[in-house]
Amino acid sequence: MTADLDGVEAVVLVGGMGSRLRPLTLSVPKPMLPAAGIPVLAHLLSRIRAAGVRHVVLGTSYRAEVFAEHFGDGRCLGLQLDYVTEDEPLGTGGGIRNVAEVLSEPDVLVFNGDVLSGVDLAAVLRTHRDAAAEVTLQLVRVADPRAFGCVPTDSAGRVLAFLEKSDDPPTDLINAGCYVFRREVICSIPAGRPVSVERETFPGLLTAGARLQSHVDGSYWLDLGTPAALVAGSADLVRGIAPSAALPGSPGEALVDPGARVDPAAVLAGGCAIGAGCVIEAGARLTGSLLMDGVRVGADAVLTRSVVAAGARIGDGTVLSDAVIGEGAVVGARCELRDGVRIWPEVVLPDGGVRFSS
Ligand code: GDD
Ligand code: MG
Q1: pLDDT tens digit string along 83-130?
Q2: Which of 30, 44, 50, 148 could share a disulfide with 18, CB 3.0–4.6 Å?
Q3: 47 Cβ contact partners less than 8 Å away, ≥ 6 residues apart
Q4: Which CATH architecture has domain 253-357?
Q5: Does the beta carbon of 321 sit less than 6 angstroms from any atom of ligand 1?
Q6: How far apart are CA 242 and CA 289, in angstroms?
């Protein structure tokens, strides 16, 4: 462990239902969806490991078993991984409190499990210790803060308020979903009932006069909570725009699993990720799209910023633009699906010009 990260362990919240990503999350929990060939969570875990942290606890709930099946005890990542599962979802604060018994270090890095980021974790920890804060929150600037936790601060970076998903946010600085907690603060969260860290814990700490410090960061940041964001994040990883220590290949226009077959007369651009066992026929043109394992794309199909789940088939000449295709679905030849259209698993669309846009 580096000297900076002595006395730190990590918690990752991975228990959400991922409802905005349905139907992709019907069988796979959001942090286990692939981005650039490996689970979203694997990028975060590799970053935590690269920073020098070894003990990581996953706070699980929805589809908890999938995480342990994939990562086991964490040894393959150089980590010691523990899993603590909520029988009923306890929310973000309840999920953090629920893992307190397996923590032992004085400071705890806590992460939302659906975020891609390039923040320097040692720098976040330095901010926390220099300010002698009870909690430190990483903040980023976004164009539209309404979908996030808005966090006004004073000129010294002290947090003044926490406004989760407000219609009229007073600043463009938002909660990036990466915190340092003093462990005793975690122990003070009520146990055994749902708690929102954003709506209850942070406002409560501020009312009680606790020191909450901010760490503003300008590096890459994206919440992968929607299909559009998942596709964009995966493409950014593939092209090397989003940093990751775990990219399974070199950055470029496409990342193709060695077990996929791409016809030499197909064109892949804009950061496509092609999973194992995919077959892409001649003349197909794919831009910035994400194909999970075993997808078949017919001749002359055109896929733009679309995500296709495992085992789905896309017919010859079909056009997908910002579309989401569920597991095992069959989209016939010469269909046109645009503008965020979502096709549910196993649905079969016949050949012949079916046109959908939302
Ligand atoms: N263990 C557990 N239990 N984890 C949960 C639960 C739960 O009941 N509910 C949600 N989570 C996990 C999710 O899996 C995700 O990794 C994380 O908590 C955040 O939940 P999201 O559902 O992704 O929240 P959000 O994106 O709407 O908002 C949050 O993230 C934003 C930044 O990306 C908030 O923290 C905002 O304040 C923040 O700006
Ligand atoms: Mg999120």
Answers
A1: 999 999 999 999 999 999 999 999 999 999 999 999 999 999 999 999
A2: 30
A3: 117, 121, 243, 244, 245
A4: 3 Solenoid (2.160)
A5: no
A6: 16
Q: Which residues of the chain have pLDDT under 70?
A: 1-4, 353, 358
Q: How far apart are CA 327 and CA 316, in angstroms?
A: 19
pTM value > 0.90 = yes
- Could you give the angle at which helices 227-238 and 40-50 cross, rounded to 10 degrees? 50
25, two tokens: 């999350």
- Residue 288 Cβ contacting ligand 1 at under 6 Å: no
Q: Strand 107-112 and strand 173-182: pairing? A: antiparallel
C-beta atoms surrounding 346 within 10 Å:
13
Tell how far the Cα of 16 is from the centroid of ligand 1, in angstroms: 6
Alpha-carbon distances, residue 60 vs 74, 89, 223 (angstroms): 15, 9, 18
Judged by its nearest atom, the ligand closest to the C-alpha of residue 117 is 1
Unique residue bearing structure tokens 């009312």? 207
Give 332's strand partners: none
Looking up tokens 């010859």 gives: 316
Question: How far is CA 276 from each of CA 187, 189, 284, 311, rounded to the nearest angstrom?
Answer: 44, 43, 18, 10
R_g over Cα of the chain: 21
In the chain, where the domains are located: 3-223, 253-357
Inter-residue contact 75 to 49 (CB < 8 Å): no
Strand partners, 181: 108, 135
Question: CA nearest 255: which of 284, 233, 234?
Answer: 234
Helix (H), strand (E) counts: the chain: 7, 31
Q: Is 9 exposed, middle or buried (0-12, 13-18, 19+ CB in 10 A)?
A: buried
50, 245 contact by CB (below 8 A)? yes
Rounded to the nearest whole angstrom, what is the distance from the C-alpha of residue 151 to the centroid of ligand 1? 16
pLDDT tens per residue, range 306-358: 999 999 999 999 999 999 999 999 999 999 999 999 999 999 999 986 777 76
Q: Which CATH architecture has domain 3-223?
A: Alpha-Beta Complex (3.90)
